[in-house]
Amino acid sequence: MKAINTAALAPLTASRSFRSRENILLLLLKLRTFIALFLILGFFTFTVSGFLATESILIMLKHISINAFLALGITFVIITAGIDLSIGATLGLCGMFAGWMITHGIVLPMFGIAIFPSVWVIVPAVLVLGGLIGAVNGWIITRYNVAPFICTLGTMYIVRGAAMLLSNGETFPGLDGNPRLGNTGFDFIGSGSLLGVPYCIWLMFVLALIIAYIARRLPFGRHVYAIGDNERAAELSGIKVKQVKIWVYTISGLCAAVAGIVVTSQLVASHPATGTSFEMNAIAAVVLGGTSLAGGRGTIVGTLIGAFVIGILADGLVMMGVSEFWQMVIKGMVIIVAVIIDQMQNRMQHKAAIVSQKIVKEEAATE
């Protein structure tokens, strides 16, 4: 019969107990977005009359969808340890571009005419514009090794200025089009519904499914996570890091364009200041959803839940009559807390990995 060294087993038992406690706390941190969502829903349900009425829910979901479009697009960027501060400005410029095409058309001076494209041309053109802005961001960042924060900050000012120049700072109103010009139907994107649910809500879930599929099922998604985890190792393994990063920022620009189309269609008007500070809400949703600012970790489901938390919090505070100034304070606090929790999770995961290695060594020593 083999003798068992009980003295050697004592530290092993203590290590396992510590790992068990750490795992429980780590699980709670990973589920923080769901916990926050249920707490916020419960709070506003009991404090705001009619909060869960069907009409209120649909209005909240329409507001959430705008932030979700931006957050879903920027998730890939943050997973690669990047940032995109230009998505709010891109939203505004894309909306202005759509308004300009509907209001003024495409002028051809050499022929003395103006072509008024249909909505089937306007929407793809706006998407191309958003994608190009994102691609330029990615190209500058990878080609000249510019910090994403600085590059997208500069792009934000350029794009916002371009939106102002497009209309000299004025609004393009009445974007329902003219039947004689054949450019009607743009407003239907924001006002139409399917089975009683607005199109933008359907689009939000469809886009989330597409991006989640890309993230988990396609090689591109695995490359994005690999770059965020260790860019140098990803490059040595054969991943085309620069190309992936350009596509990541292109996707961010495309999603911002989608948000711009939806917002402009809902308002039936476009203003160059539309989308100001929207990037902050999107980043807050992504970080709150569990995506690490250090890169390499994050989920699309988490981002979507984070967008719900931010959206429900904002609308709930409005329904309670809370001042807009206090809303800004609360949103800022949410962002700071989310980052602190993210750092805690990173440290705990690192510590858990060290403890696991220690347990393996101790088990090997007791054999």
From TrEMBL:
Report TM segments: 35-61, 68-100, 106-134, 146-168, 188-215, 246-269, 275-293, 300-319, 325-341
- Name one matching Pfam family: BPD_transp_2
Question: Which domain of life does the UniProt lineage start with?
Answer: Bacteria
What's a GO cellular component annotated to this UniProt protein?
plasma membrane
Q: How does it sit in the membrane?
A: Multi-pass membrane protein
Record flagged with keyword Cytoplasm: no
Predominant cellular place of this UniProt entry's protein? membrane
**InterPro entries, per this entry?**
ABC_transp_permease
Q: Where in the cell is it found?
A: Cell inner membrane
A GO MF term: transmembrane transporter activity
Q: Which UniProt keywords apply?
A: Cell inner membrane, Cell membrane, Membrane, Transmembrane, Transmembrane helix, Transport
Similarity comment: Belongs to the binding-protein-dependent transport system permease family. AraH/RbsC subfamily.
Its name, as the record gives it, is: Erythritol ABC transporter membrane protein
> Which lineage?
Bacteria, Pseudomonadati, Pseudomonadota, Gammaproteobacteria, Enterobacterales
